[in-house]
Sequence to fold (397 residues):
Amino acid sequence: MPSANKLQFILDERARLEREGLLIHIRTIGSPQDSWIVVDDRRVLNLCSNNYLGFANHPKLKEAACRAVEAFGVGPAAVRTIAGTTVLHTELEEKLARFKGVEAAVAFQSGFNANAATIPSLVGKGDLIFSDELNHASIIDGCRLSGAEIVRYEHCNPASLEQKLTERYPSGSPNRALIITDGVFSMDGDIAPLPPLVELAERFNAMLMVDDAHGEGVLGRSGRGAVDHFGMHGRVDVEIGTLSKAFGVVGGFAAGRKIIVDHLRQKGRPFLFSSALTPADVAACSAAVDILQASDDLVRKLWDNTRYFKRRIREAGFDTGRSETPITPVMLGEAKVAQQFSRRLFEEDVFAMAIGYPTVPMGKARIRVMISAAHSKEDLDFGVEKFARIGRELSVI
Fold:
């Protein structure tokens, strides 16, 4: 019998993570998501949730969810293809298609599942995927599941993509090619250069997919996303969205050409083999779409808050990288410094988590600040003052 502990590798890995300042410490939320929340029994300013528009605790979404529970119960009890598709699901998908200005949309249990369903349904063994090197983990996993060959191009660099396409996907190639990019990159807050990517996809006859998880509810008219922001309607084959960030609930969707959406209903494994979204979730998401269709007030408030915070935090002496969106990375470099900074913020009643490797490259650790329409100017002033005080204390500004 072997005497060594077969799980020693876990203990070794945990020790390494702790030694390098990369061990993740999970805090517990004790209240609804809002500008101020209770975390580990402490009331703190919330600067790290994805609740861009304040929908996570919006009264109209809560009312819609409660009505759906009364009408349809709490669980779907089936996958979509058997007995899990309700009138609520089809209504949400129709609303999403109209909101996005596309032919059709299909909802999934999460944005992660939307990528896991879509990518392997469009390409497989022998095909090529051209993927931005900083694409989200869910894209990376969806690419791996497909079995297609993955070709990474330099981040937000159309010239690099053109070079890779020229080398690897010559005219007349019998295989399929899929170009994939995030619309907004979740760690740096920069926006993909969609117009030249669209032109390359059209020139090389490749499919183009945009994962707009952090663009939905943020960019474009009333938050219609990056494709709307650039006026690229009808030229992107499929958009992946999430209902778990700006929409304030949970879920994901694929939207675009009807032929693709119909194909995903036949081939998308999370759609075929995992239970449907609950009635409460679907109804709340539908209410969020209704609010955005009716008014852009919350989106404009989000951007007003974003510009205000970015200006003030930069004036305080911090580097916010290449961010162009409400995602505001406060660059600190070393993971241990970022973790210490986050702990000190929490002690000063600010909840903003450190982000380190492997989520971001080594030496690029940061505090990622997420701005919301729910924040007041006073909230943001409070946060900047605490950042500045701790920045001076730790000699990072």
Summary: The mean pLDDT is 96. The longest strand covers residues 327-333. Residues 297-315 form the longest helix (19 residues).
